[in-house]
Structures are given as C-alpha cells and as structure tokens.
C-alpha cells in the first residue's frame, strides 16, 4: 500500500463534499508531476485530503477506489488522468500547515518542499505522524 496527499480548495470540493457524495473522480489535475503520481495510485492506497488556500489543513483520509483512467474533464487523447477516491475517515482534529511545519518528523514532506503540487506521495512515517497529530 502507498500513501498520498491530495490538495483541494474547500470552496471547490471539500472533504465534506466527498463524504456526502461517497466517492468522486479526482479530476482536473493539470501538472505533469501530479499526473504521474495519480497514475501510480492503486486501489486501497490511503490518501490524506488537504484543504488548500483558505483552511490550509489536513482534514480527512480517503482511499483510492479506482486506479488511473482518462480524465473526462480533459480533451480526448490527452495525457491527463483521474482516480476515484472514497472517504474513509474525517480526522478528529484537522492538522494545520503550521503544525506540519513545526513537526520535525515532517520537514521533508512534499507539502513543504513543493507547496504548489496538488498530488504528492507520502512516506508511511509521514502518514502516521499526521494521523498522530490529528488525535
């Protein structure tokens, strides 16, 4: 199993929206590196959902329900892909960007090194540390 973090503006699509819908296609990613990460996701992989722009916090855990397939929001025959995510767990306490920056275990996390990337891998230890901070 692999671990990931995806970012979404809560005004556009929040974790609450994912909970309400029960699943969603994670579409609209238009960065080549982020697309490559989406293409690596497999069913069962765990995904932390980060609310960007306004809240700047990790708010929930989702799971990959379907591996990469052509993104329906892109032009046909384009290289863009999407995956299906389903909600797994709302964190008891959101983990703020400030808390992430303050934790020595998370200093190499992609969120801090490539802050504009919307999809990124996590190490298992980073995933576990973030869940710990949420309790």
TrEMBL record:
It holds the Pfam family EVE. Gene3D superfamilies: ph1033 like domains (3.10.590.10). InterPro entries: 5hmC_binding (IPR052181), EVE_domain (IPR002740), PUA-like_sf (IPR015947), THYN1-like_EVE (IPR047197). PANTHER family: THYMOCYTE NUCLEAR PROTEIN 1 (PTHR14087). This is EVE domain-containing protein. The lineage of its organism: Bacteria, Pseudomonadati, Bacteroidota, Cytophagia, Cytophagales.
């Amino acid at each position: 199993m692999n671990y990931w973090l995806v970012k979404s503006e809560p005004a556009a699509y929040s974790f609450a929206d994912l909970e309400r819908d029960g699943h969603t296609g994670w579409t609209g990613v238009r960065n080549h590196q982020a697309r490559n990460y989406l293409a690596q996701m497999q069913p069962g992989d765990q995904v932390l959902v980060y609310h960007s722009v306004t809240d700047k916090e990790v708010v929930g855990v989702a799971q990959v329900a379907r591996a990469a397939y052509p993104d329906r929001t892109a032009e046909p025959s384009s290289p863009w892909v999407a995956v299906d995510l389903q909600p797994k767990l709302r964190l008891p306490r959101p983990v703020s960007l400030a808390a992430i920056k303050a934790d020595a275990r998370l200093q190499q996390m992609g969120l801090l090194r490539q802050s504009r990337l919307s999809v990124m891998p996590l190490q298992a230890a980073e995933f576990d540390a973030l869940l710990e901070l949420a309790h």
